[in-house]
Specification:
mainly alpha, Rna Polymerase Sigma Factor, Chain: A, Arc Repressor Mutant, subunit A, 2 domains, elongated
Length: 193
């Protein structure tokens, strides 16, 4: 059943035919990717896990409505994105500090490369922390599109479909997000000196 060559559509068809184990293969296939994207969007590892779980439950319940007009992951991400927005609207947390967000995620940005120079790792860790902090300061609309473009590598058209807005708006938001990130990072680097 866990055959990598089995397409998403074949797994969906099997699930709709009553072989619900096929949906487990889809979960295994996309769970970590979805989580990795959402943790940056929602700012909390715990919240991202909850959104992923809720999104898969909703996707399973709505599987009959999947029309194959887009990739399964795009459809699933759209469900997760809407779930995250709904949860955010219900909770409306106040502004959190970078330290609070770091505490929530339970992880410190790290360099996964095996360089052994402690100064290099320290510099890299500081840079990643600065980028993460700047990213967290962006408005949700800008943060979402920049994460989808730069971290997920999605095209403008795919992003437009996922966030339900015109491609031109996506381009504009990405441009503005990049500009704001540059400004925030420049200020942060100037303040460090």
């Amino acid at each position: 059943m866990n055959d990598v060559s089995t397409s998403d559509q074949q797994l969906i068809n099997q699930c709709l035919a009553g072989e619900t184990d096929a949906f487990g293969v889809l979960v295994t296939r996309y769970e970590e990717r979805l989580y990795g994207t959402l943790v940056h969007m929602v700012g909390s590892a715990h919240e991202a896990r909850d959104v992923v779980q809720e999104a898969f439950v909703l996707a399973f319940q709505k599987l009959k409505t999947f029309r194959q007009e887009s990739a399964f992951y795009s459809w699933l991400f759209r469900i997760a994105y809407n779930t995250a927005i709904s949860r955010h609207r219900r909770s409306r947390p106040g502004m959190a500090s970078v330290d609070a967000i770091r505490d929530k995620t339970g992880t410190e940005p790290t360099d996964s490369r095996p360089e052994s120079d402690p100064a290099y790792r320290l510099h890299t860790s500081e840079t990643q922390a600065l980028v993460s902090a700047a990213l967290e300061e962006l408005a949700e609309d800008f943060r979402t599109v920049i994460i989808l473009r730069e971290m997920e590598g999605l095209s403008y058209e795919e992003i437009a479909e996922l966030v339900a807005c015109p491609v031109g708006t996506v381009r504009s938001r990405i441009h503005r997000a990049r500009s704001e990130l540059r400004e925030k990072l420049a200020r942060a680097l100037t303040n460090e000196r």
